[in-house]
C-alpha cells in the first residue's frame, strides 16, 4: 500500500506553496471516494441510467414508430388529444409525460403501450 503524500513529500509543490499548505493543514493526496461514487461504480445498468437518458430513448422509440406509420406530428396529435408541439418535445426528451399520455400515444399509433418501451438501455 502506498503511503499518502503529505505536504512535505509532494514533489510537485513549489516551496512557497508547502508553507501555505502547512499553515492551513492541507494534505496533498486525493480524497477518498464518497459512498455515492462507490455505489455508482457497482451500479447495475438500470441504476446508472439517468432520467434524461431514459426520456431520450423513449422519445427515439416514439419517433421510430411514428415514422414507420408515416404520420406527421399533427396527424398523430389528432386522435391522441396531445398537442403536436408536445409530441415533438416528447421525442426530444425535453418533457416528462404521465401514463395517460403514454396510453393516448399508443392508441394514436395503434400499438400496444409496451411497444413504446421496447428499446435497449
Please characterize this protein's 3D structure.
The structure is a single chain. Helices cover 58% and strands 0% of the residues. The chain has helices spanning 15-24, 35-41, 45-48, 51-68, 73-80, 84-91, 99-109, 113-116. α5 packs across α6 (84-91). By secondary structure, the chain is mostly helical. The chain is elongated, with a radius of gyration of 26 Å. It folds into two domains: 1-31, no CATH class; 51-116, lambda repressor-like DNA-binding domains (434 Repressor (Amino-terminal Domain), Orthogonal Bundle).
Describe the largest sheet. Answer: none
Class of secondary structure makeup: mainly alpha
The CATH topology label of the largest domain is 434 Repressor (Amino-terminal Domain)
In angstroms, what is the radius of gyration? 26 Å
**Overall CATH class of the largest domain:** Mainly Alpha
**At CATH's second level, what is the architecture of the largest domain?**
Orthogonal Bundle
Distance between the termini: 38 Å
Helicity, as a percent range: 55-70%
Content of β-strand: under 5%
Tally of individual helices: 8
What does the average pLDDT come to? 79
CATH homologous superfamily of the largest domain, by name?
A: lambda repressor-like DNA-binding domains
* Uncertain regions spanning at least 5 consecutive residues: none
Which shape, going by the Cα principal axes? elongated
Amino acid at each position: 500500500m502506498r503511503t499518502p503524500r503529505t505536504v512535505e513529500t509532494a514533489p510537485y509543490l513549489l516551496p512557497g506553496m508547502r508553507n501555505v499548505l502547512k499553515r492551513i493543514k492541507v494534505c496533498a493526496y486525493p480524497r477518498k471516494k464518497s459512498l455515492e461514487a462507490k455505489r455508482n461504480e457497482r451500479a447495475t445498468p438500470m441504476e446508472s441510467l439517468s432520467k434524461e437518458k431514459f426520456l431520450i430513448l423513449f422519445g427515439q422509440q416514439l419517433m421510430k414508430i411514428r415514422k414507420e406509420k408515416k404520420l406527421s406530428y399533427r396527424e398523430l396529435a389528432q386522435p391522441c388529444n396531445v398537442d403536436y408541439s408536445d409530441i415533438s418535445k416528447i421525442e426530444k426528451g425535453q418533457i416528462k409525460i404521465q401514463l395517460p399520455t403514454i396510453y393516448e400515444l399508443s392508441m394514436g399509433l395503434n400499438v400496444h403501450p409496451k411497444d413504446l418501451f421496447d428499446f435497449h438501455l
